[in-house]
């Protein structure tokens, strides 16, 4: 029987790449994004290239109760794979950044991700199978001055995913949290304020490779997936430093890379 995957933030970047991989594996797709023109283009592209059924839902996932709206819209469809990918970055000192944008980020990264997981997990548990892939970040492993809310929200996603992955052992449902380092997508142009060729570009990964890494980890049921050896090293480095030192190092890197 054909399986169905729901992917958020599917109109570009990692969400688009993950949707391609799912389509190649013959999953029917429900793709969600705020970017209507690009999401429609992705649907047309996938309809031409693959046999799977592609439905799109155009929604701002940073608004309250949006997870329930999506669930109600598709509740007759059994979801086998849930990819919580939609996200964005915001750069600047906490005292100077825009609260409305930060509220949207907290809703999107924390509340919508958690609520979608809760709603679709129920059906997965009843079937005794399902896969959840949450896209966090290398930012999850330490505090991030100049991107404080982004780093903190990604730390939430990592901690939440690891905790429920443990609770779900033996149920047939797995939770994987992908923690990419800098990846060449539209995300970087937003957080770099149009300075995409900033100095972190040396460690900038290709989105298709990051997606393949995360996709395979999800299918293996691995809990934490960190693509790239250097990123794996960076993820454990804070354990050997004081919290203060780790935070200061991130601050120095941010100052240097983003030319504040
Ligand atoms: N790229 C990196 O360096 C990097 C590193 C670590 C983790 N990540 C994470 O990877 C995930 C995917 O990002 P990406 O790099 O693929 O960036 P991307 O190319 O900008 O893709 C993100 C997609 O999510 C959509 N989106 C943003 N806010 C939304 C909302 N409120 N409701 C619905 N859709 C929304 C975006 O639409 P718009 O373009 O219209 O906003 C875009 O289509 C994010 O969670 C990000 O935090 C990225």
Automatic annotation (TrEMBL):
Protein name, entry field: SDR family oxidoreductase
PANTHER family: RH59310P
Source lineage: Bacteria, Pseudomonadati, Bacteroidota, Flavobacteriia, Flavobacteriales
Originating species: Flaviramulus multivorans
InterPro entries reported for this sequence: NAD(P)-bd_dom_sf, SDR_fam, VLCFA-Steroid_DH
CDD domains according to UniProt: SDR_c (cd05233)
Keywords: Oxidoreductase
Origin: domain of life: Bacteria
KW Oxidoreductase (keyword) present: yes
Pfam families in the cross-refs: adh_short
Family: Belongs to the short-chain dehydrogenases/reductases (SDR) family.
């Amino acid at each position: 029987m054909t399986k169905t995957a729901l992917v958020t933030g599917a109109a570009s970047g990692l969400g688009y790449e993950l949707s391609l991989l799912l389509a190649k594996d013959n999953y029917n797709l429900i793709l969600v994004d705020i970017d209507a023109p690009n999401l429609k283009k992705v649907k047309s592209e996938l309809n031409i290239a693959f046999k799977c059924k592609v439905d799109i839902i155009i929604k701002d996932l940073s608004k309250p109760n949006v997870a329930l709206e999506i669930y109600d819209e598709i509740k007759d469809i059994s979801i086998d794979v849930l990819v919580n990918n939609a996200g964005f970055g915001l750069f600047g000192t906490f005292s100077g950044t825009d609260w409305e944008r930060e509220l949207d980020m907290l809703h999107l990264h924390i509340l919508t991700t958690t609520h979608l997981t809760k709603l679709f997990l129920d059906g997965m548990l009843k079937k005794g199978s399902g896969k959840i892939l949450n896209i966090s970040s290398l930012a999850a492993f330490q505090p991030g001055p100049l991107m404080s809310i982004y780093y903190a929200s990604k730390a939430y996603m990592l901690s939440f995913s690891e905790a429920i992955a443990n609770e779900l052992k033996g149920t047939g449902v797995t939770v994987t949290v992908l923690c990419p380092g800098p990846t060449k997508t539209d995300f970087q142009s937003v957080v770099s304020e149009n300075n995409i060729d900033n100095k972190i570009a040396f460690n900038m990964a290709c989105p298709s490779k990051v997606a393949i890494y995360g996709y395979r980890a999800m299918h293996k049921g691995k809990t934490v997936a960190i693509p790239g050896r250097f990123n794996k090293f960076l993820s454990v480095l804070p354990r050997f430093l004081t919290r203060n030192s780790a935070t200061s190092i991130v601050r120095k890197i941010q100052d240097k890379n983003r030319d504040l």
